[in-house]
């Protein structure tokens, strides 16, 4: 039997549950994987938190993206344990680890036991520790999927060695100490400094449950059936608009059409970052002083409203924009189709928070980066971007207008050719890797074969 030329699932079609951590970057990359599995005729149930499940249905055409696999793709919601009005952004997103362990875990076990057809495999976010235990108890093999880069995965993995060798904790926030080189992350000796470690390593309290949780989840991956690392990306280039938790504003694409080639610096700090108003003012003045064109996108709720407040509702400071009604910049308060923006010929650079998805998307688009990391793996990503891959400049911990002006001029003017051609070369390698003969293409084939062999 066939539907639209595709075979219908049969009793031997394997059934996979995909379960991301409830945040945009995790959902985006795991939905891409879901699509690839459906394309290979595997049945996929995609499990979101109830909160994101509703948003995904509200703001995206995810149903139409998967409409070609009506018999193969299902979406379900599960409680994340937080109240609806919790911000789920900034550092507070970490509250999810605790709430999911207490509320979601037992529900997850019930779901694994009751879902039909029965599951053959669970692909869970490797940042969550409980799915491996729970699925293990009911006898379902688990594959871990990490949405962070291999370099940050490895850094988390090595943290117990850093502690044992006395390289952690970091002794205060002095410049000299932050610049101290770390030697116990094999492969990163000589360039990884204290300030480049995952943000959870900052501060003296290493018993911090989030850091411990992240390290133990990382080490736990060795017990999973397999580990998928999202290191060469963008497995489906044309469906960028189909997984957003915010409504997309596409007006900026029209504005970009009117700008000269590679003249615009795109500025966006992702789906979780919450910024201090002072930092925004410094970035704004640095950008204006650099005299470069820019497109700055600010997500709703991405600015601290007031200290200690739970609701970050404020948006871009209006008085800044009013003073400069120029043609050379555009400020959007909302959410844009980032991959399309990065692919636009007018974009010549990206000022990014170095989230892993943004980093991968920028590499594939061949655009050089200025990195201003906020937290988690971003400190590591920005160091690799600048020092190892040499695809951009890292301005971490120095959010001042003079620094912004300097790095923007360096990226968009002084080193434009050099960084642009390195970025173009890396983009070629990335595209090659996802082709049928590339490393990612071959790994995907092997994964699908493995899942088929799990059919019970
Ligand atoms: N994104 C987008 N439009 C925006 C901002 C972000 O489409 O205006 C997407 C971006 O393309 C990426 C994801 O949101 O796929 C953000 O993930 P990332 O890992 O970069 O950062 P996080 O949001 O998890 O900090």
Explain this structure:
This protein has 456 residues and is α/β, with parallel strands linked by helices. Helices cover 42% and strands 14% of the residues. The protein contains 17 helices and 14 strands. The chain has helices at residues 24-39, 50-59, 62-65, 95-114, 130-137, 150-164, 175-178, 209-220, 251-257, 277-290, 318-322, 338-343, 356-365, 378-388, 401-414, 416-433, 439-454; strands at 2-3, 6-7, 15-19, 43-49, 73-78, 121-125, 142-146, 226-229, 264-268, 293-298, 329-333, 347-352, 369-371, 392-394. α4 runs parallel beside α5, α6 (150-164) crosses α8 (209-220) and α10 (277-290) packs across α15 (401-414). The longest helix has 20 residues, at 95-114. It is globular and about 65 Å long. Mean pLDDT is 90; it is low at 233-238. Uridine-5'-diphosphate is lined by residues 23-25, 28, 244, 268, 270-272, 297, 335-339, 355-358, 361.
Give the SSE layout.
Blueprint: E1 2-3, E2 6-7, E3 15-19, H1 24-39, E4 43-49, H2 50-59, H3 62-65, E5 73-78, H4 95-114, E6 121-125, H5 130-137, E7 142-146, H6 150-164, H7 175-178, H8 209-220, E8 226-229, H9 251-257, E9 264-268, H10 277-290, E10 293-298, H11 318-322, E11 329-333, H12 338-343, E12 347-352, H13 356-365, E13 369-371, H14 378-388, E14 392-394, H15 401-414, H16 416-433, H17 439-454
Parallel strand pairs: 3-4, 3-6, 4-5, 6-7, 7-8, 9-10, 9-12, 10-11, 12-13, 13-14
Antiparallel strand pairs: 1-2
This protein binds uridine-5'-diphosphate.
